[in-house]
Specification:
single chain, alpha/beta, seven-stranded antiparallel sheet, six-stranded parallel sheet, 15 helices, 22 strands, globular
């Protein structure tokens, strides 16, 4: 369906452009070439053939650039123009979904929108905008848009005046629109895990004050909303009996089906290891590996998980495959010793200031590769570079195209986040240098390719997937501990446990992975890549044969 839509889009644009060009020709000349590019034969006007050829080349390049801009705008958070037709999907080349996943999501979306009930569940569909058809259902009482890629909520949300529950959790929202003030029947509003910032920039105070029936507002796990005073400020705008959930709680909740984040789940439990998968993936596993078909319109995610757990219980525990990581050469011993000493004296931010609040760890610091500085002329030359066969292939198959490393023009002022990353990098520059040298002793190519390192202290469990990664990662652990292997689901009925203590494990973080229980102090360095070409998923764990043993073997 995606391929057919792209073909129709291309044909329609070509037909429209041809019509515009024909209309621009000499109206008094009846002998213009039918279906042509828009130019009459060179002999019928005053342009010579060379000029006609040059104009056609420039015209083709300009139209191509314009159409690419229109497609990019459909996915830009600051651009209100959603994709034509209002399906909710940006052009498939603008994100990293494979064709099968896009097709499955579109089928699910079409089936769900065909329903006429008072509840609508559009979760885990990779939507970049809300389908316009949703706003025609003024009778809806519950709308679930969680686990998508939404960057805005349009003003049309005001048409859903019967809503009592709205779930926008796990998206990319930065601002709540004024239009929510029209949802006077709303009782539950879930904005957990978005990109919301301070009260005055992300929340329309007048609109919130109009929600007189609201009983629960959840804004947890928004990194900029961790101030304890924020809950009081929000509560002052809302009814007195409205519960405001704010901040990034570190406590583990009571066992229930409501564990929203990896750090809240017990990674030793099978359910926790299955949770990172999307509902369609779980549904496919239930059908393919256990022979149980389910109707998405009848069987929800919770029921699918229940059926899967029952199926696994009847088969017995999953097999464990233990893998020894890649040994490091003896020459790395002084580097590893220095790195461990450095990690032990590193002051890791604690509590609400710790990075990546959704996992469980005593310390977590992300270091990003410094920005490349380039001259303006060099950047312009790169922008005019034609698309490569690789990028064209990715576009054809619906994958996110190659995203080059971010560059900054010489003399240009850095943004707030870039300045923060730069200060943090300078503070931990020696740790970065050691990390590069150690990686270079095992995989010199990857030492140049990775663009970030996560330094962790006592990382616990936290089964999750790394959705932003474009390739497998390398993991190295240091310290005095027993256990603490990196576990990854290598198949429906198998878990691979990789020993990374003073060794490198190469793992694809786009599969569910976690850390097994351990005793002692455990530090780790996780090398990963979020820019460049998307490397297709092939296997969850990579085994490397080594004839000679290195230090730590």
């Amino acid at each position: 369906r995606v391929a057919e839509n792209e073909r129709r889009l291309e044909a329609t644009l070509a037909e429209r452009d041809a019509g515009l060009l024909r209309a621009a020709c000499d109206a008094s000349e009846p002998n213009r070439p039918a279906g042509g590019s828009g130019y009459a034969h060179p002999s019928l006007h005053r342009l010579d053939p060379e000029r006609v050829a040059e104009n056609e080349r420039r015209l083709e390049a300009t139209l191509a650039e314009r159409d690419a801009g229109l497609l990019r705008a459909a996915c830009d958070a600051s651009e209100p123009n959603r994709p034509a037709g209002g399906s909710g999907y940006a052009h498939p080349s603008l994100h990293r979904l494979d064709p099968e996943r896009v097709a499955e999501n579109e089928r699910r979306l079409e089936a769900t929108l065909a329903e006429t009930g008072d509840e609508l569940h559009l979760t885990s569909l990779d939507l970049w905008s809300i389908p316009l058809a949703v706003f025609d259902r003024s009778w809806l009482t519950r709308l679930d848009l969680s686990r998508n890629c939404l960057v805005e909520v349009p003003a049309e949300i005001a048409s859903l005046t019967a809503l009592t529950a709205l779930d926008l959790s796990r998206n990319r929202l930065k601002v709540l629109p004024q239009a929510v003030g029209a949802l006077r029947e709303l009782r539950e509003l879930n904005l957990m895990t978005n990109h919301l910032r301070q009260l005055e920039t992300s929340f329309p105070t007048a609109a919130l004050s109009a929600l007189t029936r609201l009983r629960c507002l959840d804004v947890r796990f928004n990194q900029k909303l961790t101030n304890a005073k924020l809950a009081d400020a929000l509560a002052a705008l809302l009814p007195g009996d409205c519960q405001v959930l704010c901040g990034c709680p570190q406590t583990t909740p009571e066992p229930s089906t409501g564990h929203h984040h990896a750090g809240e789940r017990d990674a030793t439990l099978l359910r926790s290891q299955l949770e990172p998968w999307s509902t369609p993936a779980l549904r496919r596993r239930l059908a393919v590996d256990f022979g149980t078909e389910t109707d998405p319109n009848i069987t929800d995610r919770e029921e699918v998980l229940k059926l899967l757990l029952e199926g696994y219980a009847s088969r017995g525990p999953r097999a464990i495959r233990r893998i020894r990581g890649i040994p490091l050469p003896s020459s790395s011993e002084p580097l590893l010793s220095e790195l461990l000493a450095l990690l032990r004296v590193t002051v890791f931010p604690e509590g609400e200031k710790r990075e990546r609040q959704t996992i469980q760890a005593q310390g977590y610091i992300i270091l990003r590769r410094p920005l490349e500085v380039c001259e303006e002329e060099e950047e312009e030359e790169e922008e005019e570079e034609p698309a490569t066969a690789s990028s064209q292939g990715q576009r054809q198959h619906g994958l996110r195209p190659e995203r080059p490393r971010t560059k900054v023009k010489s003399g240009k002022r850095l943004g707030w986040k870039q300045r923060t990353d730069q200060v943090k990098f300078e503070k931990h520059a020696r740790a970065w240098a050691l990390a590069v040298l150690i990686m270079g002793s095992v995989d010199p190519v990857y030492a140049e390719a990775f663009d970030a390192v996560a330094m962790t202290k006592n990382f616990v469990g936290s089964a999750h997937v790394d959705t932003e990664n474009v390739a497998p990662f390398y993991g190295l652990s240091l310290g005095d501990f027993e256990g603490g292997r990196i576990c990854v689901e290598s198949g429906p009925f198998e878990v691979a446990e990789v020993d990374t203590r003073y060794r490198f494990g190469k793992i694809d973080g786009r599969y569910p992975h976690w850390v097994s229980p351990y005793k002692g102090e455990r530090y780790s360095m996780i090398y990963y890549q979020t820019s460049g070409s998307v490397e297709p998923k092939t296997t969850a764990v990579f085994e490397h044969g080594h004839s000679e043993e290195g230090w730590g073997a």
